[in-house]
Amino acid sequence: MDNKLMLMIPGPTPVPEAALLALAKHPIGHRSGEFSSMMAEVTENLKWLHQTTSDVLMLNVSGTGAVEAGIINFLSAGDRVLVGNNGKFGERWVEVAQAFGLNVETITAEWGKPLDPQKFAEVLEADTNKEIKAVIITHSETSTGVINDLETINSHVKKHGQALIIVDAVTSLGAYNVNVDGLGLDVVASGSQKGYMIPPGLGFVSVSPKAWEAYKTATLPKYYLDLGKYRKSTAKNTTPFTPPVNLIVALHTTLGMMKKEGLESIFARHERQKNATRAAMKALNLPLYAADECASPAITAVEIAEADKLRSVMKKRFDIALAGGQDHLSNKIFRIGHLGFVCDRDILSCIAALEVALPQVGYDNFTPGAGIAAAAKVFS
C-alpha cells in the first residue's frame, strides 16, 4: 500500500490541507482588485509575524534569493562586512558576499557549535573608523541544528552604531521569537517552505528605516532583486513582476491559521517539539550534534554511523523523510525537522518508526519504547 509521505525535514515542510486547496484554485489576475485586496491583507499579516511596522517584501525566490537580496540592496563593492560562518549556510553567505566584491571578514565556529558573540564584539569595538558596513549571520543554522545568539550579537552591532545587521532567519522565523522591531533588526530574510507552511517559491525580506537609508547609496548591481521596486509596488498592494499567484493565495490561508494560533503558542509548540525530539534521542542513546543550550527549535541533528542507510529504511518502510548531513557530515548525521505544520503526533510517529528502523541498520543500543516514553513525558 502507498503510505502518505511524512516530511520530517527542515524544508520543504508539510503543507496544511487548507493551503493545498488554496493552491488548487483557479488563478486570479495579479493586477486585479481581488488580488490587490488579498495582497494588502497578506502584507499586514507578514508585518504581524515579523513583529514590525516596517516593510516586509515578497520576492519570487527561495530563501537563498531572499538573503542575497538582503545583502546586495544595501552595500557597495569593497564594503567591509563581517560574516558568521558555522555551517553550510553561513558558508554560503560568505560565498555570496565574495561574489559581489565585498571585503569579507569571517567569524567562524566549528560546525555544531554556535558563533561566539564576543568575537563579534572584539572586531566591532576595534573598528573605530566605522568601516564595517554590515554583519551577516545565520540565526538557525539548518545544516547542524544550531541556533546562534542573535540577541547578543545584535547588541554588539547596535553598540557599533553604523553597521547594519543582516539576518538569515529562514528556519527560525515562524518557529522562534524573531522580534524585528524589538531587537532593531535591519534586514531579515526568510523563505515560504519553512515556518510559513506553504511550498517553496516565495522569499521574504523585512527592511528597517536604517537599511533604507543605506539603500540610497548602495551601488551593487541589481534589477529583479531591487527591493526598491518591491517597496513601491507593495505600497500599492501589487507586485513589480508576475508573482506566483496561488502561492500567495495559500500564504493568505496559512498566515490566517498562524494568527489564530497566536505567536506565543507557535513558539511554545516548536520549543515543546524540539524538547520532545531531543529527549527521545537521548533516551535512545543517540548523540545529538548540537548542545541543548544552542539547539534550534526547527531542526534536530543526530549522529549515527550509516545515517543514509537509516534514512533509506525510514523512507522505504514508513514513508517518513528525514534529512541527511551536508559536506563532511554526509552519512554521519540525520536531521529531524520539527518546523511549520508539524504536530505532537507527528513527532511521536517519527520516533516510533525510528525505534523500529534502528535495529535494521545494526543499532540496538537502546531499550525499545524508551524514545517514545521520553517524548511522551515532555508532551504530558
In short:
The protein is α/β, with parallel strands linked by helices and 380 residues long. It contains 14 helices and 13 strands.
Would you mind describing this structure in some detail?
The protein has 380 residues and is of the alpha/beta class. It has 2 domains: 125 residues, Aspartate Aminotransferase, domain 1; 244 residues, Aspartate Aminotransferase, domain 2 (3-Layer(aba) Sandwich), CATH 3.40.640. The chain is 43% helix and 16% strand. It has 14 helices and 13 strands. It has a 7-stranded mixed sheet, with helices on both faces. A 4-stranded mixed sheet has the order 1-12-13-11. α13 packs antiparallel against α14. The longest helix has 21 residues. It is globular. The mean pLDDT is 97.
Strand percent estimate: 15-25%
Overall helicity: 40-55%
Question: Total number of β-strand segments?
Answer: 13
CATH superfamily of the largest domain: Type I PLP-dependent aspartate aminotransferase-like (Major domain)
**If strands are numbered along the chain, what order do they take across the biggest sheet?**
2-10-9-8-5-3-4
Q: CATH topology of the largest domain, which one?
A: Aspartate Aminotransferase, domain 2
Order of helices and strands: EHHEHEHEHEEEHEHEEHHHHEHEEHH
Ranges where pLDDT stays below 50 over 5 or more residues in a row are none
Indicate the CATH architecture of the largest domain: 3-Layer(aba) Sandwich
Structural class: alpha/beta
From the spread of the alpha carbons, the general shape counts as globular
Distance between the termini: 33 Å
Rg value: 21 Å
Number of helices: 14
What's the rounded overall pLDDT mean?
Answer: 97
**What is the CATH C level class of the largest domain, in words?**
Alpha Beta
Biggest pleated sheet: 7 strands, mixed
Number of spatially distinct domains: 2
